Amino acid sequence: MLRKARIAVFVSGSGTNLQALIDSDEIKSGELCLVVSNKADAYALKRAEAAGIRGEVLPSKGTEFDRRALELLESNNIDIVVLAGFLRVLGKEFVDRYENRVINIHPALIPSFCGKGMYGLKVHEAVLERGVRITGATVHYVNEAADGGEIILQRAVEVLPDDTPLTLQRRVMEEAEWKLLPLATELVCKMYLEDK
Description:
By secondary structure, this protein is α/β, with parallel strands linked by helices. The protein has helices at about 15-25, 45-50, 60-75, 90-95, 120-130, 165-195, and strands at about 5-10, 30-35, 55, 80-85, 100-105, 135-140, 150-160. It is globular, with a radius of gyration of 16 Å.
């Protein structure tokens, strides 16, 4: 049997993007091996447990998180890291160690509505406030700048006249995030294995 890339998913909240990865049949070159959360009460950990994936909680304080996360990834032979609703910026040492092997999903079309302070519902509130007609989601490589890495995939989603931040968030997840993240994960796993 061919080797698969070992994937760790980093989460902070409910884990809807994690569930999209668990449910997807797109990921053929990788396997979900570990779920890491910086919050002990993240519902994503229950999703991981239900899927038979090991879950770990790490503290969220400064460089301590990065150091402990790197140790955990190395002890589990993790090849690829997927940030799926992970509300923390990883430090330079972490990003350098996993260069071009850490990806993130962002609920807007980067370079719009991204960067520091732009996450979750705040993004959709800003989209509606600006009156834009098209939004979407982006999967990108992670570097030390928030939402600053090279774009892997994007998908556009129409903003409707009666949208609220919650209805827009839901539609962006359903039409873009939950489709893009498994596709990009497969792409990155495949490229990683081809380079080995």
